[in-house]
Amino acid sequence: MHFANQSILPAVRQMKDMEKLLVSPFEYIVLLDVHIAQLKPIFQMVRPHNKKLLLHVDLIQGLQNDSYAAEYLCQEFTPYGLLSTKASVIIRAKQKGVVAIQRIFLIDNSSFEKSGALLEKTNPDYIEVLPSPMLPYLKEWKTGRDIPLLAGGFIRTEDDVNRALQAGAVAVTTSSQTLWKQYAAAGARR
Fold it and tell me: Is the separation of the CB atoms in 12 and 18 below 8 Å?
């Protein structure tokens, strides 16, 4: 299961940007920084355009990021997937049959070890690694794991995208509108 060869996953923070992406070739969109009251209108706006939303549960204002929130989001909105740093959210997303993306921050050796233990517990569909320059360090760690990687954080240029893909990511998440435009012009596929 991959993101239909979509090299970048646009990460949206504002409604005006979501409106732009509705007419883009991107099939998958990550939704960040949204208030819970905005979810229903967003899903109503997105459905006719056949876009698949990935909700970053930790960044939904007015909703606690726990298994109950994940269950509510899955039942009420049926997103394509959920992203979170929380194990309970990832486990519930998998139970509900939506794509579960475990977001991990690799900042030192301790976080590296803790993330390994977390992934053993959650067994997500994807791992989003932040910051993206840490991706090459996972080659030694990923032995025995067959979980596709996404890269996020510090994705600013096409070279950043290419480095992440060469380091093993199947796609990158980015809020860079410059990259959205570049990849949309190329048909969102490379």
Answer: yes
For the chain, how many helices (H) and strands (E)?
8, 10
| Polymer length of the chain | 190
User: Is 172:151 a contact under the CB 8 Å cutoff?
Assistant: yes
At residue 141, the pLDDT reads 60
Query: What is the residue extent of each domain of the chain?
Result: 3-188
**CB 43 within 8 Å of CB 15:** no
**Where do the H-state alpha helices sit in the chain?**
15-22, 39-46, 67-77, 87-95, 109-122, 138-141, 158-166, 177-185
Which residues have CB under 8 Å from 134's CB, separation 6+?
Answer: 106
Q: What is the pLDDT of residues 34-87, one digit of tens each?
A: 999 999 999 999 999 999 999 999 999 999 999 999 999 999 999 999 999 999
Q: Report the distance separating Cα 119 and Cα 145, nearest Å.
A: 9
Topology of 3-188 in CATH? TIM Barrel (3.20.20)
pTM of the model: 0.93
Residue 159, both tokens: 């070279």
> Are 164 and 132 a contacting pair, CB within 8 Å?
yes
Q: Rounded CA gap, 1 and 112, in Å?
A: 25
